[in-house]
Amino acid sequence: MSSHLGNSWDEKLESEFSKDYFEDIRKFLREEYSHFRVYPPMKEILSAFEYTPYENVKAVILGQDPYHGEGQANGLCFSVKKGTKCPPSLVNIYKALEYDLGIPVSSCGDLTGWAKEGVLLLNTVLTVRESSPQSHANIGWERFTDSVIKMISDSPYPTVFMLWGNPAKAKEKLIDTSKHLVLKSVHPSPLSFYHGFLECKHFSKANEFLKAHGRGEINWARRGE
To answer: How far apart are CA 65 and CA 11, in angstroms?
Structure first.
């Protein structure tokens, strides 16, 4: 796994990449990728940071861990590779987007367009063994992504944090809510979607906040490119 990102995250994350716990993550992943199918592909583990440089982050969407089916995960939370059927949670995100902004539900599940708009699509755990959700929990990724959240919270740029589901909501304590907007809802999974996610209007609320703070609105209709 290369830790060279080619943008401002290199300087921001240099200290994390050099810590013992991150070397432990690397060792664990070398073994896992050697003996099992692991997603996303190793070269895409840090894709969220490659697509969305630190100073460009306007919004953060927090997922849990990557999709664990073949050909799905691409390093961006809730996103899938081009040509892959949209998983149920992503379909529900699109339904909420249509309800909020009238943007039609898309069959394209590749969200790199959102990442290029300034949406950091961050899972709290960045890898997973095939067909084994949460199999890479507690190997150190949570410490790494908590540090990322704190870095964004410390930034001078007003940012929107979209926390969907209880694990994501638990991260609110890491965020300076006097400076940033925190939007919370149930998870978009089929189990909880109709308990408030459809009507949450997080997409329009995010744009209202960003516009008010001079950061420019996100084009939520943009998809993979």
So the answer is: 25
The span from the CA of 65 to the CA of 133, in Å, is: 7
Q: Using H for helix, E for strand and C for coil, what is the string for 121-177? A: EEECCCCEECCECCCCCCCCHHHHHHHHHHHHHCCCCCCEEEEECHHHHHHHHHCCC
- pTM score over 0.70: yes
Which residue reads 């979607």 in tokens?
A: 193
Written as six digits, the tokens of 50 are: 């490659």
Helix (H) / strand (E) element for 183: namely strand 181-185
Give the pLDDT of residue 3: 78
Per-residue pLDDT of 105-162, as tens digits, reads: 999 999 999 999 999 999 999 999 999 999 999 999 999 999 999 999 999 999 999 9
- Candidates 90, 65, 60; CA nearest to 197 is 90
d(CA 7, CA 31): 28
Cα–Cα distance between 174 and 195 in angstroms, integer?
Answer: 26
Of these residues, 24, 65, 100, 110, which one is catalytic? 65
CB 164 within 8 A of CB 71: no
In whole angstroms, give the CA distance from residue 152 to residue 224: 24
Residue 90 CA from chain centroid, whole number: 12
Q: Which two tokens stand for residue 24?
A: 């432990």
pLDDT surpasses 80 at 166: yes
Q: How far is CA 48 from CA 92, 98, 193, 203, 216, in A?
A: 21, 24, 25, 19, 20
CB atoms within 10 A of CB 83: 11
**176 in active site:** no
Write the single-letter amino acid at 186: V
